[in-house]
Amino acid sequence: FNKAVSESALCRPPGAMSEAVSEESPAQDGEGGARRSSWGLLATAGLGGTLVALYALVTPFVTPALRKVCLPFVPATAAQIQNVLKMLENRSGPLVDIGSGDGRIVIAAAKKGFKAVGYELNPWLVWYSRYRAWRDGVHQNTKFYISDLWKVSFSHYRNIVVFGVPQMMPQLEKKLEEELECNARIIACRFPFPCWIPDHTTGEGIDTVWAYDLKHYRRCETKSLEITPETES
Q1: How far apart are CA 37 and CA 60, in angstroms?
Q2: Is the pLDDT of residue 56 over 60?
Q3: Any idea what the Cα angle at residue 15 is, between residues 13 and 19, rounded to 5°?
Q4: Could you list the residue ranges that cross the membrane (predicted)?
Q5: What's the CATH code, domain 78-214?
Q6: pLDDT tens digits for 109-135?
Q7: Going along 47-139, which residue ranges are E strands?
Q8: Strand partners, 143
Q9: What does the alpha-carbon distance between residue 233 and residue 213 come to, in Å, rounded to a whole number?
Q10: When you count CB atoms within 10 A of the terminal residue's CB, does the N or C end of the chain come out lower?
Q11: Model pLDDT for residues 83-109, shown as the tens digit of each residue
Q12: Is 93 helix (H, G, I), strand (E, B) or coil?
C-alpha cells in the first residue's frame, strides 16, 4: 500500500504539487491581509487621536490671535508684580486683573489681603491659575473666569489691573470710564492709556506701571441732602 501511494505521488504531473500548495495560499493571504488591515486601522485611529489632541491643545492659544484685538499671553515679571503691589498700597476693596494670564497678579494681590478676580480667555491658563492659587493657599480669596473682557462689566471693582496692548487701550479706556465708580484706581502695565494722565508712575522699561484715579477724569460729586430752614414771613 505504501509503495502504491508513493508511486502515485511520484506519478503526479509536475503541476500537481504546485496546485496543492496553491490551495493553501488563499487562506494564508487572507490572514496576512487581515493583519495588514488591522494595523492600518490602528495607525489611522492613532493619527486621528493625535490630531484631535493637538487641535484641543492649540485652539485656545490660536483663537485669541484670530480676534480683531489680540491679547497675547506674556508672563508678568517679578518687578512688574512688585510695582503693581506698590500702586495698591493703602487700597482696599475687590480687585480684578483683566487678561490675568497664569494668575500671578491675582495670587500676589490675594496674598496681600485682596479679594482678587482674574478674567482670561484662554481656558488652559485659567485652569493653571486655579491650580496655582490652590497650591499657594489663596484659592478662597481668588476666582478665575474664562471670559471675553468686552462682555464683562467691571462696575463693582475698585482696583483694576490691565495687561493690554496698544490696539485695545483706547476702547478699554472708554469702557472703564463708563463703568467704574469714582473711587476706582486703574493700574496699567507695559502700555499706558492714550488719553488719561497717570497720577502715579513707577518702574522702568517694560516693568513700568501707571496708576490712574478715575475721580480725576470725570465729574465725581458727592450727593448730599441740603435742608434749607424755612423763614417766617
Answers
A1: 36
A2: no
A3: 125
A4: 39-58
A5: 3.40.50.150
A6: 999 999 999 999 999 999 999 999 999
A7: 95-98, 116-120
A8: 117
A9: 48
A10: C
A11: 999 999 999 999 999 999 999 999 999
A12: coil
Strands of the sheet with 185-189, listed across from one edge = 142-146, 116-120, 95-98, 159-163, 185-189, 209-213, 200-202
Helix (H, G, I), strand (E, B) or coil at 65: helix
Cα–Cα distance measured from residue 106 to residue 120, given in angstroms and rounded to the nearest whole number: 12
E strand or H helix at 143: strand 142-146
Q: Print the SS3 string covering 160-229.
A: EEEECCCCCHHHHHHHHHHHCCCCCEEEEECCCCCCCCCCEEECCHHHCEEEEEHHHCCCCCCCCCCCCC
Burial profile 185-220: b = 16 or more Cβ within 10 angstroms, e = fewer? bbbbbbbbbeebebbeebbeeebbbbbbbbeebeee
Q: Where are the domains of the chain?
A: 78-214
In the block, which residue shows the cell 508684580? Answer: 81
CB distance 94 to 218 below 8 Å: no
C-alpha cell at 164: 493690554
CB burial class (10 A; 0-12, 13-18, 19+) of residue 158?
middle
Containing H/E element for 37? helix 14-65
Range 68-90 burial, b when 16+ CB lie within 10 A, else e:
eeebebeebbebbbebbbebbee
3-state secondary structure of 115: coil
Cell 490602528 sits on residue: 42
